[in-house]
């Protein structure tokens, strides 16, 4: 039978549970029908609910039929007779099905004894719709076939079924799910002896309170129950409630215990006792569920801490724990390699002190953003404040650590060296900014420099722009091929560079059209520079692959940057001057109007 309970899919499960249900129902009817109506004690439905909550729905039909037959037989033999057998069987099944369906819908998983939310759903389902609906139906049947009125029958049903379900369902579910077996397999011998001693002492204390004490001392049992919950957990809570139910129930039935001091019938005393059991359950099981959740959380935190330590201590990146005030609380061993100091020397230091003063504000702002937005990872690049020489770039990823209320309690950050990445980035930017054939600036890069120079001119500087076009370049391509044309373009820029200063810029705007930005130069001096460039280019022909020498000349348009409003206007003015130079016989310079 125990195997069937642990393996509900067994073919013997319906018959086994039906037999156990019949025995439990018969015992309740024989011992607790004090007023001739419904039983005051009922734990048989707890067995059915425990099964439904721990098995597949495909296994339900056989067990429901078996328990319905067992309920009908026990009612016919020991209860309200044959006429009430079938209706009461349907009502018992209705109660169990309502609880099972609600728990399956709102608390899937079946382990409501181990966490707060499923336990809360179970208690609400059992005390609410399940027994309000089933209790009304059962009271209607009982008030029809017996002399007990509807109200009294409803109270008998409600107290017996609710309290029986609260008391018995958790421990039966644990048995069916194999938690007792796992507890024995995973618990040390010392812990097992401790649990047995605690439960034995609780049983003796319960016997003393109910059989020996001359004063009502039910409150004295609450402290050992809580101690058992803290030391043993879910199984201890369920076992202590079961011990209290067995010892206290037997004492109350036989006229012993503090409840015997209450005036009234035996049925009323049993109802008071079951109410005490309910309060004991609602004290111990939620505490056990919360402790179980905290133990799981603590275990997860330990595992997370172990992973974090392993990563932090073996990673090449620097890992820092930073307080809300910005003080370093932990530094990983990678600090020695990356920063060049022992990790313990950084503890207690302001994290901003690691950063170059020029980038400190950005780094502090990133820390503040991480605290303000705990769920987001903030990224900031900075230069470390190591020495005056060779300051390199680092990248910091930082995220807030929050407490159970979601409030930030600190920061975790990783810092990695970005120097190589920055160098590659600069190289790519430089490559993208240079024309691959001639080495001059690309059109986009040159226009950006032009806008920057015009901004400087607006602040009181001066500069000039030369727009240049190689004369008769199409004829070079037509006569000698595009390879020769490329060689002429590259040679043309080579011959221009010696005549330019370091602050000047040359860009290829497209085809054979070039532009030269002469910084700090007025139109008169720019004209002289242009004439010198024409002479240098003309005096040094370009040798192409065939060995032939090609003489190169160019036409140019010159404009002052201060005379125009924006970069496009400057280019337009220079283009008009270049147009005039081409129509004036080429190989000459013309000034913009």
From TrEMBL:
User: Record keywords: Signal included?
Assistant: no
Ranges for domain PAS: 304-374
Look up the EC number in the record and give it: 2.7.7.65
CDD domains in the cross-refs: GGDEF, PAS
Record-annotated GGDEF domain positions: 461-593
Where's it found, cell-wise? Cell membrane
Q: Which PROSITE patterns match?
A: GGDEF, PAC, PAS, PROKAR_LIPOPROTEIN
The residue ranges crossing the membrane are 12-30, 36-53, 60-78, 84-107, 119-143, 155-176, 197-222, 228-251, 272-289
Task: Say which enzyme class the record assigns.
Answer: transferase
Q: What is its membrane topology?
A: Multi-pass membrane protein
Tell me which residues make up the PAC domain: 378-430
**Which keywords, in A-to-Z order, does the entry hold?**
Cell membrane, Membrane, Transmembrane, Transmembrane helix
**GO CC entries:** plasma membrane
One function term, GO molecular function aspect:
diguanylate cyclase activity
Report the record's Gene Ontology biological process terms. cell adhesion involved in single-species biofilm formation; negative regulation of bacterial-type flagellum-dependent cell motility; regulation of DNA-templated transcription
Name of the protein this chain belongs to: diguanylate cyclase
């Amino acid at each position: 039978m125990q195997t069937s309970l642990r393996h509900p899919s067994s073919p013997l499960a319906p018959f086994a549970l039906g037999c156990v249900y019949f025995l439990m129902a018969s015992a309740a009817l024989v011992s607790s029908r004090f007023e001739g109506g419904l039983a005051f004690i009922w734990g048989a439905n707890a067995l059915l609910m425990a099964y439904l909550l721990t098995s597949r729905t495909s296994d339900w039909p056989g067990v429901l039929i078996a328990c319905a037959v067992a309920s009908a037989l026990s009612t016919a033999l020991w209860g309200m007779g044959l006429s009430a057998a079938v209706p009461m069987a349907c009502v018992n099944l209705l109660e169990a099905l309502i609880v099972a369906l609600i728990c399956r819908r709102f608390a899937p998983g079946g382990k409501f004894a181990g966490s707060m939310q499923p336990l809360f759903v179970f208690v609400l389902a059992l005390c609410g719709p399940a027994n309000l609906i089933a209790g009304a139906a059962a009271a209607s049947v009982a008030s029809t076939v017996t002399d007990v009125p509807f109200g009294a029958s409803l109270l008998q049903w409600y107290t017996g079924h609710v309290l029986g379900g609260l008391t018995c369902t958790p421990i039966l579910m644990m048995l069916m799910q194999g938690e007792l077996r796992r507890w024995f397999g995973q618990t040390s011998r010392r812990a097992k002896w401790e649990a047995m001693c605690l439960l034995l002492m609780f049983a003796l204390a319960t016997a003393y309170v109910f059989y020996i004490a001359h004063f009502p001392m039910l409150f004295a049992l609450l402290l050992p129950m809580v101690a058992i919950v803290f030391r043993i957990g879910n199984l201890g809570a369920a076992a202590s409630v079961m011990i209290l139910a067995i010892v206290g129930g037997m004492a109350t039935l036989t006229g012993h215990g503090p409840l015997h001091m209450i005036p009234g019938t035996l049925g009323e005393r049993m109802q008071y006792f079951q109410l005490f059991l309910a309060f004991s359950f609602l004290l111990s099981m939620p505490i056990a569920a919360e402790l179980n959740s905290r133990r799981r959380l603590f275990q997860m935190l330990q595992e997370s801490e172990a992973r974090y330590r392993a990563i932090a201590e073996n990673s090449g990146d620097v890992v820092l724990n930073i307080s809300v005030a910005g003080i370093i609380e932990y530094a990983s061993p990678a600090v020695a390699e990356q920063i060049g100091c022992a990790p313990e020397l950084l503890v207690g230091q302001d994290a901003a002190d690691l950063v170059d003063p020029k980038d400190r504000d950005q780094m502090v702002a990133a820390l503040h953003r991480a605290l303000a937005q705990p769920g987001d990872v903030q990224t900031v690049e900075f230069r470390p404040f190591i020495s005056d020489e060779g300051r390199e770039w680092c990248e910091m990823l930082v995220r807030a650590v929050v407490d159970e209320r979601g409030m930030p309690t600190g920061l975790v950050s990783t810092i990695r060296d970005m120097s190589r990445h920055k160098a590659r980035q600069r190289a790519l930017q430089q490559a993208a900014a240079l024309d691959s054939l001639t080495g001059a600036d690309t059109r986009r890069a040159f226009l950006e420099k032009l806008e920057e120079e015009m901004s400087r001119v607006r602040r009181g500087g001066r500069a000039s722009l030369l727009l240049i076009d190689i004369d008769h370049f199409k004829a070079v391509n037509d006569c000698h091929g595009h390879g020769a044309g490329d060689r002429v373009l590259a040679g043309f820029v080579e011959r221009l560079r010696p005549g330019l200063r370091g602050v000047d810029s040359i860009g290829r705007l497209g085809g054979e059209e070039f532009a030269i930005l002469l910084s700090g130069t007025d139109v008169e001096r720019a004209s002289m520079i242009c004439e010198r460039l024409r002479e240098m280019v003309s005096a040094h022909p370009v040798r192409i692959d065939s060995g032939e020498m090609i003489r190169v000349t160019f036409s140019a348009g010159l404009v002052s940057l201060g005379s125009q409003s924006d970069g496009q206007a400057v280019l337009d003015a220079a283009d008009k001057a270049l147009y005039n130079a081409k129509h004036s016989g080429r190989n000459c310079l013309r000034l913009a109007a």
